[in-house]
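Bug #77: duplicate submission created two jobs. Keeping one. Sequence:
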Amino acid sequence: MTIWTVILLLALSAGCTLAARTLIHFFQLESYQFQGYFRTLKRNLLRAILPGAILNLVFWAAGVLLVLLIPEDNTWLPGLLLSLILIGTGWLLHQRGKKQKAKKAMVVTARVKRLYLCLFAVILILLWILVRLAEADPVLFGLPTGRVFMALVLIFPFLLPLWTALGGLAAWPIEKGISGMYFRDARKRLLERPDLIKIGITGSWGKTSVKFILGTLLQEKYNTLVTPGSFNTPMGVTKVIRNDLQPAHRVFVAEMGARHVGEISELCRLVGPEIGILTSVGPQHLDTFRTQERVTRTKYELMEAIPEDGLCCFADDGGICRGLYERTGKPKLIAGLDPEKDDVWAENLKPGPEGSRFDLMLDGERIPCRTRLLGELNIKNIVLCAAVCSRMGLTKDQIRRGIEKLQPVAHRLELIRHPGNYTVIDDAFNSNIVGAEQAFQTLKGFPGRRIVVTPGMVELGDREAAMNRQFGEKMADCCDLAILVGIRRAENIREGLNAAGFPADRVVTVSNLQEAQRWIAANAGPEDVILFENDLPDNYEG
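Kept job's structure:
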């Protein structure tokens, strides 16, 4: 192996690593889970293959041209130029990946940097092995295979999605060691704070809204730390504990998300919650959980972790959550809208353009409340949080003041007056059939032309088509115009709309959100109310 062969291998490794930015972004978006990564590859096959395919084409074309154009006696110039071309192409593909629009931008964390290093090392080792085997021209099964190994070198960039997965596999033990160290440190910090009240919140939907509502109400009495945004994984919660928890904090509220059985238990082992809040149980993330029973079992892991003298709090859904409440033997409460069955409930709900008014029924007293939040689900979330706060010693005046201070959570039935002079109800963060129905009913209460912009529901596995047909049926009763984003899911939603008698000429299908926004800019008027229900059907637009 000559020095120029080594340089070329280093250059090809660097080019491949740089070109893999989109693939590494996929990996990050799927929380570095291999199953999710390969699902994303399948859904974005062209986008996944394209960087490696372009690099491969440049590799071939540049190699052939350099051989034809440069004299044979010049032994160093072709290698130098090809190396520069490979690195330059990789860099250009890296820059192209940065410009791709995603609903969640890639964050270049320390973990991402380690993944890049591991990927570079894996690619370099694989290329070195292939070249050495090609040079040795070994005989396997009685056949010379040197040309086969060299052919693998020549198509190596095309297989970049696979090499990225191998890079992630190589990084896994490193990340496991680092995350374990941070996890133990965060757990130790919490164990050293017996004065700190620790609350865990989970659910198929509503947990982020409940977290922010609870945090706002608790601030009326306690210095409270709430995990920001959607920080709901073990490493996300660990980071908050290590970076943000201060001696002055008296309450720590942790959102707990899961895509697999056992993940809530791991979060409970970290946080050690004394109070558990279950917001909902439904058919979310069925592409990983597979069955509703596994979803239910995973969400209930929070209540199993609550100590015998703790408190288990349930939102009354009239279904699974109520069943779990009834089977729980620990101290518990349930909150909702049912005065016959709930410990705390709301009455006289009155939604309007400025928010909502309702009566909070708490400990036998009627507390008139007003809030900027919209929708029955938000009122139920407020009632649940009020019930928890009452058990934690907040007065009724403190609870009422906290409710008045609540601000809409971004992309969760957020009411916006658009500069184009029409009204937007932004419910784009996520979607489930219960939340969608509530959003539709909220839209129905507004005057003017009512428009829904949606790609339907995602991550429902084999039930996705049927659920999107049901989604369409629910939508038909609340809107005057439906803008469906994405071709595949649109067919299922359209079937539901048709089944409910929705006029076909009032359905517009677009390929992506940008196209929908262009349609709105050209056609929306000042009397229109536009509901954005759920986000794009994948991590990238298009």
